[in-house]
Amino acid sequence: MDESWLLRFAVILLAYSTLGLPAYLVIRYVKKRHANPGADDRRRNCLYDFLVRFSVGLDRESYLPVATDEEPAAADEPPESAPPVPGERKQFLKNCATFAVCFLGIQGTLIVMGLYQERLMTQGYRKTSTEGTTVLEKFGDTQFLMLMNRLFSMVIYGAYIFYNHRRQPPHVPPYYVHSFTSLSNTMSSWCQYEALKYVSFPIQTICKASKIIPTMIMGRLLRKERYSMVDYLCAFALAGGASIFFLASSNGHKSAPGAAADYSWVSGIILMVMYLSFDAFTPNWQKSLFDTKPKISKYQMIFGTSLFSAILCVVSLAEQATLFSSFEFFLNHEGFMQDVFLLSLSGAVSQMFIYTTIQKFGPIIFTIIMTVRQILSIIISTLYFGHGMTWIGIVGFVIVFASIFAGHCLKYQKKKAGASR
């Protein structure tokens, strides 16, 4: 019998609560004890020190730079007649080069990831039985692939942090803050796949093309980021153009196999709202961590997020009773281990470009890059296979890039006008 999505969602939350509830109680206990000035510090040990770092973090004031009397009072504010900074043009060119590297890196690594994901989920792998016969079997557990991806990232970036620990800043925030990124990332993926059972592909396409709007709303709520009316107009134009392009390109595309014949619109809308909320929360929360002072490095964030994501994947696989069977498939099928390694490698490298983009340019630019990535992939596919593109799709394409160009030109003019005052 097919359970409802609400029951499956409750089961997932129940499984995660077996870790989250004890962790919450530990955090409350450690915070209460750490805040008590009469606590007996002589009973502290390595385990308690780790729990303090996990629950409370380090003393932020001890790691902030201290202002001295030798510095001039108006050091941060140059006089009105000060000439422009000589390195401003050099910094602009450096930012452009960084953006180009991040854009190309995200496109390249995610394209490779998509190819290997399709290969792993659709291609059969050979297994030699004890009788000497060869059997061709397919693998179908995406959670295990996600687990291997996270474990690979942990190994790479954990080794980098270990060997370059002197160059890493102190991790002042408590460790548990990275669990929110892992949870929101996991739940957004689940809601996206679950929603295809209740809404048509075009409806989901429109929602995915409009991610920039909830990203801006979440930035306003979570980081108190202020956006002008021009920013919102450009965002709506970009979302509308992307929706037109995707709908024109997906003409005749149907829902995923197994989708309900009569769509339950209430369930579908709720799931898509949840997907957009989780998906908008993730980059904004990452940006808020990058903005904390003293700053933490992107390597620390990738390692922390990968660690909590791996724990959530293990819980999910254990709940489904597929953890050991997946590892058995991983060890006993020819070529499977190599493909998983290449998938995980491309995923680990993509994390570097993604976190660098969010750190330097913010979640809005990252969302735009991901939208443009989807558009370019459709254009490349259209050109490669010789499919025609409708004039409606071309109109949507022009609207998307016109809104991006207009938004950046207006921001530049506003910044230039403010500097000339």
Automatic annotation (TrEMBL):
GO MF terms held by the record: 3'-phosphoadenosine 5'-phosphosulfate transmembrane transporter activity
One cellular-component annotation, GO: endoplasmic reticulum membrane
Protein's UniProt keywords contain Transport: yes
Localisation: Membrane
UniProtKB keywords: Membrane, Transmembrane, Transmembrane helix, Transport
Residue stretches spanning the membrane: 6-27, 96-116, 144-163, 230-248, 260-278, 299-318, 338-358, 365-385, 391-410
A Pfam family per the record: UAA
The keyword Lipid metabolism is assigned to this record: no
Predominant location: membrane
Entry membrane topology: Multi-pass membrane protein
InterPro entries the record matches: EmrE-like, SCL35B1-4/HUT1
Domain of life: Eukaryota
Family recorded in the similarity comment: Belongs to the nucleotide-sugar transporter family. SLC35B subfamily.
Record's protein name: Adenosine 3'-phospho 5'-phosphosulfate transporter 1
Lineage: Eukaryota, Metazoa, Ecdysozoa, Nematoda, Chromadorea
